Amino acid sequence: MGKKDQERFKDYPVFKGLQKPLEFLGLKGRYIFWAAGAVGGGLLGFLIGYILLGFLAGLLLLTTFLGVGGSMIFLKQHQGLHSKKAPKGIFIFARSKSY
Fold it and tell me: Transmembrane segments in this chain: where (predicted)?
């Protein structure tokens, strides 16, 4: 490239952090949405329990939703963000079709 091309095309900084997963308060990637669902479900459970059965039932539903949701998120996030089911065992292929 000549000097004219360098003057015409300006350099812009490129954000290099796009390959990292989204992280918020220690939660990574899809588990942010799981946490939002657990909190939303807990609040909805509290409201329904409070209206139908009283304060203690609503509080019990809230703690249940948050506890189960939080423990599921913790366990799944500990396995890894892109956890896949790996087949266990030894597989023997007896035949193969050849074309």
Answer: 31-51, 57-75
